[in-house]
Amino acid sequence: MSKSILILTNPLPYSKVGSWTTMYNYYFQNTKHQFDYIICPKPDVDLFNTVEYSFVKPISFFSKLKVKFKVEHRLQNYFSALDKIIKPNEKYVIQIVDNSGLVVPLNEHLNKHYLRENFYIQYYYQGFSPIILNPTETLFYNGINELLFLTKMSYVVFLRYYNDFVCNTSILHNATNSKQFFKLDKASKEAQRKEMGYSSKLIFLWCSQDRPKKGLDLMLQVWKKIYLKHNQEIELLIVGTNRAIDIEGVKVVGRIPNNELAKYYQISDFYLFPSLWKEGFGIVLAEALKCGCYCIASNQGGIPEVLEFGKLGRLIENPNFIDEWVDTIEKGIEEYKSNNYENPFFKYIKDDLYDMDIWSARMNTLIIEAKIALA
User: Is 3-175+355-374's fold the same as 186-348's?
Assistant: First the structure.
């Protein structure tokens, strides 16, 4: 019987906020998972007791000097951890999450020290656009057996970019915890607002990392125009940054733990996602959808697929155009009011949309199918 190994650059369990690390935390804590081993840096929290670990030792001072010259020195600690697990003539599924630089050296290591045919390599890509460009693509794709995409849109982009694209592929959307992210009824929503110190105004929410590509500066320009007309009835909450912002109608909530995020989605009426880059998925968008927010987002990367191409929310075709945001938000406010202050798109959102239990079951299926392919 083949074994399965998960290789991560982050420790697991992961104590900080992250998209895929949150999913794997849930997967190992709450499901009958299919992994036998985890290779990762040693976590600073209690380990999962349903899987064996082989820890990646920190890079020494002398190794750091070597890294400047050869990449294999940086990865040697990963291979040392892997070699402690592998037994001759046994078969292994190895899953790598979003670390493209590991693939080619790992393939070379397996070819040099083992029978490569005894390994099935899954690469779980958390981005959108092609990551490996000509002329190194052949080495990368020869090093994996299967590429897992977040969206079908991303797969199509890869298919169009490469002349030869021959590895197996599967789609595995990111997911959220439906027990944490869910819509409140009107009475509960109003009560939670009062408890958190917010009025009954229309609440807009921006929640992300404060990087230029996340569009906060653009949204603040949009907000100034919206606020001129609706200043008596709207408020914008900024979650994810401690930046000082002195603009009317804007409140900076700051950075908050992941276990407190849901209540900000739940008290909000609108979620704004002005991404200015090709998002792989946008897990915050999925969280907002499940909490009942009227979502308005850039038509970038995998975002349209998350919103089911406009069925679950509004898409901004030209996200760099301020006036397009203003017009769409204005229409959204009117639509929201005319629907008795409810999100008209929510009727299409199922309880299990982007659900972690479904993600976990799908992950198990992919690993089992990989083991069958090995056999």
Answer: yes
Question: What are 149-191's pLDDT values in tens digits?
Answer: 999 999 999 999 988 888 899 999 999 999 999 999 999 999 9
3-175+355-374 adopts what CATH topology?
Rossmann fold (3.40.50)
**Residue segments in the chain with a per-residue pLDDT below the cut of 50:** 67
Q: In this predicted model, what pLDDT tens digit does every residue of 360-373 receive, in sequence order?
A: 999 999 999 999 99
| Per-domain residue ranges of the chain | 3-175+355-374, 186-348
Cis ω before 13 (30° cut-off from 0): yes
- Taking each helix axis from N to C end, the angle separating 216-230 and 322-338, rounded to the nearest 10 degrees, works out to 50
CATH topology of domain 186-348: Rossmann fold (3.40.50)
Name residue 297's beta-bridge partners: 273, 315
In whole angstroms, give the CA distance from residue 114 to residue 168.
Answer: 22
CA 171 to chain CA centroid, nearest Å: 14
Distance CA 255, CA 239 (A): 6
Q: Which pair of tokens denotes residue 81?
A: 């951890």
pTM: 0.92
Contacts of 164 (CB under 8 A, 6+ apart): none
**What is the per-residue pLDDT for 19?**
80
Among 189, 185, 182, residue whose Cα is nearest residue 352: 182
- Nearest 5°: the CA angle 26, 306, 234 is 95
